[in-house]
Structure formats: structure tokens, C-alpha cells
Amino acid sequence: MLKLSSVCYQYDEKPLLNGINLSVGEHEIICLLGPSGSGKSTILRLIAGLEKPQSGEIQWNEYDLSEVPAHKRNFGLMFQDYALFPHHNVYENIAFGLKMQKLSKTAIHERVELCLKQVGMLSFAERKITELSGGEQQRVALARAIAPQPRLIMLDEPLGALDHTLRQTLLEELRSILGENGIPAIYVTHDQEEAFVLADKIALLNHGIITQYGVPDTVYRNPESLWTANFFGLNNILQGEDTGENSVRVSFPSAEYVFPLPLHISSKKGQVIHIFFQDGDFSQDSCENTYCLKGRVNQNIFRGYEYEIKVLIEEQKEFTFHSYKSCPVNQMLKIGYHIQDLHFFL
Predict the structure, then answer these.
(1) How does pLDDT run along the chain (346 residues), one tens digit per residue?
(2) Largest Cα–Cα distance in the chain?
(3) Cα–Cα distance between 239 and 140 in angstroms, integer?
(4) 57 near 7, Cβ under 8 Å?
(5) Which residues, 6+ apart, have CB-to-CB distance to 44 below 8 Å?
(6) Rounded to whole angstroms, how far apart are CA atoms 223 and 210?
(7) Which backbone phi and psi does 227 adopt, to 5 degrees?
(8) Contact 152, 72 (CB under 8 A)
């Protein structure tokens, strides 16, 4: 439906987006995830028609949108501050876009009531915007965005101003509401938890470049760069060096480990290589996997539904594991990995 091809954009001769390729399919929710300044909101503005790219193409169903003005694209846009009209009540805010479509009073009333029901605000129709809480305003803004039945809805950090508990509740409601309406959506956030709950696919941005794209589980569990692993807080990483013999050596004062270097890694002897260790199996007695690390339990923190276990590898580097079983502090462990559990980054 929506397709961005090699889109580039700069402001004051400063590149903000560099070769963005992105597509949104029918009923799909895509999350643009990344730190502040990575280009997420700029992508929305380009899609909405509020800005024009210097190069590249934005298409809807293979039709070039470059000459289509913003008000004719029929895309909904919802901002963090909601941009509600304070001098109108809830009903009037939601009806605004429908009046612009010149619908009949009956059609407007039916559509507003349906949207109010979907967001659980049916009894708030006559309420003033200034009398609503942050969460209630967020629901009204969402109802106003979906009321005109846009072809695509874009949400720019809409939950950023809400507290954590309310965000959790509204996230689940938001996915349900978008699913009921069947509207494809692009959701901008810097919060990975929001992205994991909502997204069918995640586009991870850094400095105007999509560094990784895919379903949430794959993006999280299989980072393709050191930056991606660090962004997700994946700290089970060791630094080694290319031995020049198709392997990586990781050295500690007390031990040395050697791992085979994948063929797709183009490095030279002595070059620094980082290894991300994914989902190791740990035990006190033995290690049946192909590759083993040794460590000592440094912390054992109960998180309510699991234990977060901090393990010092060779008394030097702290790894984090999650387990339903507790591990006593100072217990020595052997952590086993298969070759597919290792990810190598230059």
C-alpha cells in the first residue's frame, strides 16, 4: 500500500534521512523505533506531505504522491500533544474531520458515536476538553484521527506524556482499536516496550538510516550491529580480535576463548570484533553445548515473574540472564552456547 524508495531529506544542508526504504501493507502496524533525532518524525512529515524529500519516491498503491498535497492524501496524523481544540467539546472535536468531508448530520452522528464507543468515551460526548485527564484526551485524539476513516494513520509518540501504568493500558487498547478499524498504521516511538507490544514490524533508525527491519522478535533476538545490541540493552557482549586464522580470540587474565569467525565477516588479523552471546544455557556441573563460558553469580534479583541473574564472566565482564529459577550469589556456573547463538560485529 505505502512504499518509500530511497528517500533522502536534508534541512539547512544537513542530511536527516539517507536512503529510506520502507513499506506498509494492508492492516499492518509498523513502528519506527530509535533515539531522539534519528529521523522518525521527519519520515511521518514526508509521508503526510508536510515536507518534500530531496530525492526518492513515496507511493500509495504504486501511485506517486509527490504532487499530492497533504489535505488530499487522506492520511491521519496524531501527535504527542493531541492538538485537540480546547474551545470544542469531545463530540465536536471528533466530528471536525467529518464535517470537512461534508457528510450529512446523520452520518456524522453515527460515525462519532461509533468512534466514542470504540475508545470507551461514549458518556463523555458533551464534556469539555479541559475537563479531561491525559489518558482521556489521548482517547479523544485517537477517535478524532480514525473518524474520517483515513487510508493510513500515523502516530507520533502519542503516549509519551502519560505515566507507565496508563501507557500499558492504552497500548493494548490502541492495538485493538487499530485492528478493529483495519487501518494500516505507522507508530513512532523511542520506547522499545511500546514497539514490541504494538508492531507487526519494527524499523530501527539511527542517524537517518534504517539499521534493521523485521518482526519484533527477530530484531531483538538477532541484532545485526553492535549499535542495535546496545540500543536494546543487550550487554552479553565480549570483545575479541581476529586471529588471522578464521577465528576470534577473547582473552582474559585467567582464560582464553576461541570462536570460529563466520564467512560473511570481512576483517583482518588483529581487528577488534565484538561477539553477542544469545540465550545461553547455564548449569553448575557441566556444559553440553559446543562453546562454554565460565562465570560467577554476582547478583540474583527477583523481578516478580522471573529472576534476573548477573554473572561475572571470568571475573571481568557482567552478563545478564533471566530464569524462573534462582541462583545463589557466588555460585560458579558454566554457560553453554551453540554456534547459532553467537553474533559477530565489527
Answers:
(1) 899 999 999 988 888 999 999 999 999 999 999 998 899 999 999 999 999 999 999 999 999 999 999 989 999 888 777 788 899 999 999 999 899 888 999 999 999 999 999 888 899 999 999 999 888 888 898 899 889 999 999 998 887 767 777 777 778 888 888 888 888 999 999 989 889 989 999 999 999 999 999 999 999 989 999 999 999 999 999 999 999 999 999 999 999 999 999 888 889 999 999 999 988 888 777 777 678 999 999 999 999 889 999 999 999 999 999 888 899 999 999 999 998 899 999 8
(2) 79
(3) 50
(4) yes
(5) 32, 77, 154, 156, 186, 188
(6) 13
(7) -60, -45
(8) no
Cell of 12: 539547512
Answer whether 120's CB lies under 8 Å from 142's CB: no
Gap between the Cα atoms of 323 and 76, Å rounded: 43
Count of Cβ atoms closer than 10 Å to residue 315 Cβ: 14
Cell of 343: 553474533
Instruction: Decide if 40 contacts 188 (C-beta within 8 A).
Output: yes
User: Do 327 and 310 form a contact (C-beta atoms < 8 A)?
Assistant: no
